[in-house]
Amino acid sequence: MFNKKHITITGLFSVLIILLWALLTSTSSIGCSGQTSGGDAQAPRSPGQLYTNYCASCHGPYMERFAGEDRNALFARSQSEMERIIRDGDYETGMPAFGNVFSQTEIEGVARYILTDIKKKAGSHDYRPGFPEVVKTEELSFRIDTIATGLGIPWAMAWLPNGDMLVTERSGELFRFRGKTFAARIEEVPQVYANGQGGLLDIELHPDYENNGWIYLAYSEPEGNGGNTAIMRARLKDDQLVDREKIFKATPNTRSGVHFGCRMAFDKDHYLYFSVGERGNPSNAQDLTNHSGKIHRIHDDGKIPEDNPFVDTPGAIPSIWSYGHRNPQGLAFHPVTGELWETEHGPKGGDELNIIKKGANYGWPEITYGINYDGTIITRDTAKAGMEQPIIHWTPSIAPCGMAFADSGVYPEWGNNIFSGSLSFRYLVRTVLKGNQVQKHEIMLREAGRVRSVETGPDGYLYIGVENPGVIFRLIPVDEGK
User: Fold this and answer.
1) Rounded to whole angstroms, what are the CA distances from 423 to 121, 249, 277, 303, 465?
2) Is the model's pLDDT at 433 over the cut of 50?
3) What gap in Å lies between CA 45 and CA 105, rounded to an integer?
4) How many Å apart are CA 477 and CA 395, to the nearest integer?
5) What is the band of 66 on the pLDDT scale with cuts at 50, 70, 90?
6) Are residues 73 and 204 in the same domain?
7) Degrees (nearest 5) of the Cα angle 170, 321, 201?
8) Cα(77)–Cα(115) distance, integer angstroms
9) N or C: which end of the chain has fewer CB within 10 A?
10) Could you tell me how far CA 266 lies from the centroid of its own chain?
11) Is 60 exceeded by the pLDDT of residue 39?
């Protein structure tokens, strides 16, 4: 961990960087929040540059966040409807409003750019380049072994004792693959609130699955005029889920389509840890009376452990293990130390890698190294007493998703390194640790696609799930000396 002096200096330096960024962007081609929709006094900025600076981090350079019918529907919108969305935003999908950032002329230009230039590029661009037969990295060479294709957004993977792979699709489907062959679509999957980032999310098998048969599914559950994150356990029989039990449901419900979390991880004592995002409402993260913006800990049947940190705090949700989180989408236990590591999305900048501690406050939105998507300042504080500092933070945001520690037996050169996906930059990140300090990052598989899931399979290989089009592949080490 960084010492306190290092944290203080780092925090002050980061504040200065954010202030300098805001100052520079107020007069540069990137723009600033002070430019209103009514003012065309300055020359309009390039639509392509505006899209790159403000839109691509979430939507991708070719709007590849949208796929199939969704993308076609997006491109079928009228010019006026696209302008309205850019200007006013969309609460349910989490699209921020840019009416106070872009002039009316710029709004028209960006809308036209999406509906013409981006649409044309999306129809012809090869999103996933062909990788060489052997991919060479700093310390290890490997080949790509494709396991599954024909998917959309493969959110998570888990393996049955016979080697079959279960894959969740965010749209709400659960598939089983045997080897490299599609075997079945699992029936009786819970209904999902498939809105924006919501849908069928993580999947985990109980550590004692061979004796009890429990499979755990995280999903966004519809309820009323909205929904929130839920967890169900069930057993698998004849490609159907049976004995279904909902063991957790987060509050508050909201129509927002962002920040559901949800990653799950079992510890050696069979406690289940999982994340719930703050659902697009930052104040949820500091409020102990709701589930959102937290990491939770429960027994495998949903009961609350008596030694959870807020069990005796009046009004607090007793399942809370840590709080002050924005949208954690990476969660894994270190194979040697047993510590729980987490990655979470910041806003524009400020993605975090954390070690999760019992009862700790991770600061969002009271402290952050990021800024709003429109360039405005969330807070000038990057550190406060009683709030944890990240092990590292990423600015610009990589949008980390999925997380696994490399098996030291299969990948001795990468042993216990962290592998995370980048949704924004479409690559895989290897994070090298020395103790609890980050030594370096290595970017791998550039333009692989939006990496949604990273898992270590029962064979010890790293499995990577990318989306739109959805493909799952694994990394097979190659000894080039043989």
Assistant:
1) 19, 27, 17, 34, 11
2) yes
3) 9
4) 31
5) low
6) no
7) 5
8) 8
9) C
10) 19
11) no
Same domain, 150 and 100: no
pLDDT at residue 312, as a whole number: 98
The residues facing 351 across adjacent strands are 394
Based on the structure, what is the number of domains in the chain? 2
User: Catalytic residue numbers?
Assistant: 259
Same domain for 142 and 100, yes or no, is: no
267 and 223, same structural domain?
yes
Specify the pairing of strand 141-151 against strand 135-136: antiparallel
Question: What CATH number should be reported for the domain holding residue 50?
Answer: 1.10.760.10
Q: Which structure tokens are listed for 481? A: 């000396």
* CATH label of the domain that carries residue 467: 2.120.10.30
Asked, as a colleague might, if the bond just before 252 is cis with ω within 30 of 0, I would say yes
Strand partners, 277: none
Q: CA angle 109-115-118, nearest 5°?
A: 95
Query: In terms of domains, do 71 and 194 share one?
Result: no
Do the Cβ atoms of 425 and 396 come closer than 8 Å?
A: no
Q: Tell me the DSSP string of 136-169.
A: E-SS-EEEEEEEEEEES-EEEEEE-TTS-EEEEE
Question: What is the rounded CA–CA span in Å between residue 384 and residue 160?
Answer: 45
Query: In sequence order, what are the beta bridge partners of 331?
Result: 342
Give dist(CA 18, CA 22) in Å, integer.
6
Report CA dihedral (14, 16, 17, 18) to the nearest 10 degrees: 90
SS3 for 270?
A: coil
Residue 121 pLDDT grade (very low, low, confident, very high; cuts 50, 70, 90)? confident
Query: How far apart (Å, rounded) are the C-alpha atoms in residues 190 and 480?
Result: 47
Q: Are both 60 and 162 inside the same structural domain?
A: no
What is the model's pLDDT at position 90? 84
In this structure, the answer to whether residues 328 and 426 fall within a common structural domain is yes
